[in-house]
Backbone:
């Protein structure tokens, strides 16, 4: 008969040591919100959710019967790099809609944090948006181009897609300048903001 097997202290697992992780185990799913917390879809829900979404601020410009028009947009999106397409939305009740509807080319301007007043001007109904206080000049294809922006594009409209009381405008960049100085202006929780480091 053989005697009991002798083990050194290092051969016994420490009672407090956790089991070694299984590197091949499936990752745990992230905690999901309780179904009872979900609200039904509604305009109010959509607005509340998008107040949590920080968006860049742009001004879209066009010509309307020889006069410049424009509006502030936070719905600007890159759609495709090749071809270089972007999109934005505009309400058909907007005073700028006839110009956007009828123009072949549009201006897209990315605003800097120093241009909060300009963003407010182009968002305000009935304002003299191209008055003496607004620096601008005609650009390629006659598109009104604003001074002092972070970047601008002149775009050719390729589609205007109905979406409720709005139109989703899809346009192709034909020229532009990305070399403006400064930091971008943001829109969050119903007001304009700047980036924080």
Residues:
């Amino acid at each position: 008969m053989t005697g009991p097997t002798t083990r050194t202290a290092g051969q016994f697992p420490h009672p407090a040591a956790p089991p070694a992780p299984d590197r091949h185990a499936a990752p745990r799913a992230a905690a999901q919100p309780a179904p009872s917390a979900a609200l039904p879809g509604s305009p109010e829900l959509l607005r509340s959710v998008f107040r949590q979404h920080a968006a860049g601020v742009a001004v879209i410009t066009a010509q309307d019967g020889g006069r410049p028009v424009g509006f502030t947009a936070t719905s600007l999106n890159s759609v495709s790099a090749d071809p270089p397409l972007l999109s934005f939305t505009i309400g058909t009740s907007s005073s700028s809609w006839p110009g956007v509807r009828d123009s072949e080319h549009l201006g897209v301007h990315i605003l800097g944090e120093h241009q909060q007043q300009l963003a407010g001007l182009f968002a305000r109904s009935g304002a003299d948006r191209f008055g003496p206080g607004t620096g601008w000049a005609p650009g390629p294809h006659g598109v009104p181009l604003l001074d002092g922006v972070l970047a601008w594009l002149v775009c050719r409209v390729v589609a205007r897609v109905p979406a409720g009381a709005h139109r989703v405008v899809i346009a192709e960049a034909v020229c532009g300048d990305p070399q403006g100085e400064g930091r971008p202006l943001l829109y969050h929780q119903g007001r304009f903001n700047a980036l924080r480091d």
Summary: The first strand starts at residue 55 and ends at 56. The mean pLDDT is 87.
